[in-house]
Specification:
Aminopeptidase; 35% strand; 4 helices; eight-stranded mixed beta sheet
Length: 174
């Protein structure tokens, strides 16, 4: 395993985080409730949290099993994507992605996801990629489907975010 390496897709650059990303992530992601509407967690809720998160990611680049990318479009940070919880017995890893709502609907999530799936399976030799989304999160659901992931399970009423309960849809790429 090689860990996070920079690569480009047709329209995007997936790169390692830089310290100056913290301000952007706080302002665009941490202050926008839509960014964590379906996950309930917000590692960018304050500038301090955003800075600590980015610095932790940067330190983690020394590990060959850490995968975390900032997504750029024409020099602008428009999202994040990472893979985590690698299971060596199953050769499986989970992927999570966030795209700035101002850039939603343009296929960037699908494009980044296809790129990361290709990187993880082709370069890292990981054979199973999983992801999940809340049942109401149609944008994420469509991105995963367009990236070739199949829904393999539904955990009914298992995801509670801000007092709202959702079914958790599990997707797999094999």
């Amino acid at each position: 395993m090689n860990g996070t390496n920079e690569f480009a897709t047709e329209r995007l650059l997936l790169r390692r985080y830089r310290p100056d990303d913290a301000r952007i992530l706080y302002e665009k992601f941490g202050c926008d409730p839509k960014m964590y509407e379906y996950s309930g967690w917000n590692p960018y809720a304050s500038y301090y949290m955003a800075r600590e998160t980015v610095l932790r990611f940067i330190e983690s680049y020394e590990r060959t099993d850490f995968y975390g990318w900032a997504i750029e479009r024409e020099g602008l940070l428009i999202g994040t994507i990472g893979a985590y919880d690698y299971d060596p017995e199953r050769n499986c890893i989970e992927v999570g992605i966030s795209i700035d709502p101002n850039f939603g609907g343009n296929g960037y999530a699908t494009e980044a996801l296809i790129g990361v799936i290709g990187y993880l399976t082709g370069h890292e030799g990981i054979s199973v990629i999983t992801a999940w989304c809340a049942s109401d999160n149609t944008g994420s659901m469509k991105a995963m489907q367009k990236a070739g992931m199949k829904q393999t399970a539904t955990e009914e009423n298992s995801l509670e975010v801000n007092g709202i309960t959702y079914d958790k849809l599990i997707f797999t790429y094999v």
